Structure formats: structure tokens, C-alpha cells
Amino acid sequence: MAQDASHTATSHHGVTQLATSRPRVLGWLRSAAILDGDWGTSVAYVMGIGFALAGYSSFWHLSVMMGLTTLVAINYVTICRLYPHGGGVYSSVYHRSQLLAVIGALLLGADYVVTMALSILDACHYLGFHYPVVWAILIILSIGVINWFGPRHSGGLALIISAFTLLTMLIIVIASAPTAVTSATIAPPEGGVFRNWGIFVGFILSLSGIEAISNMTGLMKDPARDSRKAILSVLTKVVALNIFLGLAMLAVQGLKPGNYLEDMLRFLGEHYVGHWFGWIVALSLGVLLISAGNTALNGLISIQFLMAVDKELPSPLRRLNRYGVPILPLVVTTAAPIIVLLFVNDLETLAHLYAIGLVGAMVINLSSTATDKSVYLKPIPKVFMLISASVLILIEISIAVQKAEAAVFASVILVVGLGARAVAKRAARVKPTAVEAIPVAAPVRKRRRTKMPITKYLVAVKEANEKLLRFAAEEARARNGFLFILRVKEIAVGALPAMLEMPTNGQEQRIEEICTEAGIDFQSIQIPSYDVGYTIAEQAATFGVERVIVGAQHRSRLEYALKGSVVRSLSTLLPEEVQLVIFGG
Description:
The protein is of the alpha/beta class. Helices cover about 60% and strands about 10% of the residues. The protein has helices spanning about 30-35, 40-55, 60-80, 90-95, 100-125, 130-145, 155-185, 195-200, 210-215, 225-250, 265-270, 275-310, 325-345, 345-370, 380-400, 405-430, 465-480, 505-520, 530-545, 555-565, 565-575; strands spanning about 10, 15-20, 455-460, 480-490, 500-505, 520-530, 545-550, 580-585.
């Protein structure tokens, strides 16, 4: 288990700065599945858009874009190795330039907004809904409601979805291979350099999701190894499927540019396997695309929360609901793609809106890392990054010049985001006048008797549950034990900062009163965490306790279905020699 610090440092303004628990629970396979749910979805719309732009000559543009995709992916293998606690544009650039990091985060946020709109709209097209925009809005609202209860670890489900989709695509590849290899019509590119460059820029969606993997390194068991395996495995899938399915598409005679723009893979499934198979393709890709929208939602919530923690966005964005979900970021993240769909609801235009944010964030991340003298970077990886950044800068300029709506969209996001940042900075400079400072004593080991404890217990409480505390204190007193009182503050944000300020609520005093009355030695600890069960097991292992005491959960069936069981998670993580006691009082 990761050994994150659990001590606290006290401020003088009624808040306590706490070291967070950042569980490393993702292996490379689950990381790859989550990445595939974002990056892997590009195959669903890249070929349709490419054929609409270039017809039977689109294979050349697709092949070159796969080369750029490979180069950028290799760069991100290096970035994930260099930044094991988070290699996303905001985390990796912040130590060099806070403003540049914020701009990169805002551009990435724009990418996440359009990812939700684009992915879920395309899912509705694949599923054959008659009013895809209306259905997409309803699905986005449903995802927002579900995430009110907090995100669950999606690696296992993502792995199932990814495997199902891969199997579906392989069936199409196998069925189409004889025809695709012998009969594909690959026309030479038409027009001049500028026209073909414009078509090439239209394929930029194949890069979708690569930036997302760098944001997950803080959750990986071995960031360098797991990120490398995840990136290379998904890269292999993306490149191979795009090439083989691209040939299968070009082997179909009589297609006209614009045909099957939104659901090209469903058409290929029906054409090469049978009409019945089109529904299987629609189901697999529809679920994968909706999953990509959910991943984007959680990514955007995390960005807003982290920026608010760093005082780069207004502090109200830090407020949590009872499930640890940032309330305003959830509202903003749910509303933003809906607003986009009300104004823009065709796939090609959404692709341009998507690309300008994604490419901008990647340019900042790659160029900053390549020129960062505080990290060791060998010459060849540095050259690769600089080449990639240069090409992406040209692509970004091309999108901004040729697609006015994309430039306007990015400008609006930057103006709103930087305006909110200015408000946050102004508020941080204002000193409180009528608020009395509340000094908070740092929790220390409390000695109440001279007899040396012979055992150690840990009780985990969400709040100051007096019945549970008294039970645990009596257990410790009866067995001459030392009691750790662990209060886990659940924050449903995957990428937590190392330290986090939390408001004090006076519960420390009540805990001390109860333990003093019982006459036991104790220590009170508070830790913000993304995964409550993991953190309890982590602290139990750190302190070498013999018994963990938790209260019975009282959740509705809906909560249980969406959040799972902390007790079940804890029971699988605790070593066999540690007893788990569930108090039902």
C-alpha cells in the first residue's frame, strides 16, 4: 500500500491542513481499460469523418495521423514516467508557470465538455435513436444524477466494456479481411498541400484521450510501468483497428462522402457480417461512448476541484455534498455539454470544438516538459516532444483560422475561466475582518494512564458517532489497548492534492472527552480520501493494529448500487490477522 503521510499541520484560521490518502489501486490492465474508454472511442467516428472529408483517398491521411498518434503516445509514456503523481497538463506545468498551467487546464476542460457532448451524441446515433440530441441531453442529465453519489472505481466495468467492443471489432476485421486486402480502393490525394493539410487536421480526433492517461498516474500501482503498458496496448489497438477497418470501409463500392458519418462502424458490421450484427456493434460502441462521457465528466470535476484547492478558481467550487462530490463542479460539468448540444449538434463541428481544446492542452504539456530543466530528459525523447509540439501548434493554428466556431468556443472558455481565476485571486487577497481566528491544536498522542497498552485498535468514523466511539473506547479499555480514531473525509475526486485544507468542526474536543472518560490512550487522525475502504486498511497496516472497528452502513438500495460497500471493500483489503468488527448500534 502507498504510505502517504497521515499527520496534520494546523493553520490559524479555523482550518486544518491534512495530508490526503491517495490510494494506488490501478494496475496496467484496468488503466488500459479506462484509457480505452476515452482514446479507444476515436475509432467510432474518425473513419466516418475522414471519409466525409476525403472519400476514397482518406486512407493516406489516416495513415499519417496514425504515425503522429504513435509519436505523441510515446511522448506521453515519458511524461507519465516523469510525473508519477499526476502528469496532466495542470499538474506537470504548475511548478513552472501557474498561469500557463491554468490555461492548459481550461483548454483540457473544454476538451472534456465536448467529449461528453460528442461521445454521447454519437452513441445515440449508433443506437438508432430518432431524436439523438434530445436523447443525448437526457443521458447527460442521468450521468450527472448518478454521479451525485460519487464515482465508483470503473476499472472492472471498463475492462468488460473494452473487451466486448474489441471482440466486436475483431469480428468485423476477420469478416472483411479477404475483401479489404484485395479490393480496397485507395485513391491518390486530390488538391494541393493546403487542402490535404486541412483534411489531415480533421483526423485529429484519433489523438483523443491520450492526455487523460497522464492524469491517472497518481492512482497507478507502478506509474511508469503501468502507464507504459496501458498506453502501448491501447495504441496498438487504435492503430490496428483504424488501419484494418479503414481498408474495409474503402473496399465498399459506391459510398459517397457523408454517408454513415455518425455510425460508419455499424454500417461495416451490417455490410460484412449481417444486419443483425449491426445491433451488436451499436450496443458495444454505444456503451463505450457513454462510458467515455462519464470518464470526461469525472475528469472535469477533478480539474475544477483541484484548481479551487490551489485558489486558482473560486472557493465555492470546493463545497462537497454528503457523498464527497464537489457540488458546483458537478452542476457546471453536467450543464456545459448540454449547452453545447443546444447550439452545436453535428459531429463534424463538434470534432473541431473538441480538437482545439485537446491540441492546445497537449501543446502546453509537451513543450513545457521538453524545455523543463528540473527533470532529466534524454536527447531523443526531448526531440520527439519538440517535433510533436511543433506539429500540434500548426494544427492548433489551422483549426483556429479555418474553424471560427472552434476559436470562439475556446475563447469563451478561456475568458470565463480566467475571469473566475481573477475573482478567486482577488478574494484570496481580502483579509477577514470580523472573523475570529480559531487555533486548532495538532493531534498528539494523549496519555491518560501510566499502564503501557498491550494492543492497538483502530475505529473508523465518518463523523463523531458517540455510540460507536464509546463502544470502541470500552473495547480498548477492557483489553488495555491504544485506540486510533480515524475520521475519513470522503472526497470523490480521483486526483487529490498531497495536502488539503479542511474546515474544523469541533469534533476533536468531543472525541477527547469520550476517550478521557474511558481512561484510555488514544490518537485522533483525520484524512481526506477518495477510497474510504482503502484508506482504513492503509492506516490499519501503517499502525499495526490488531482490530478495526467500523459502524454498520445504513444505505438505501440506490446508494448501495451506486457506491458499493465500504465494509466489503475493507474486508478484502485487511490482512487475515486483523480482526474486523462491525458495530450495529
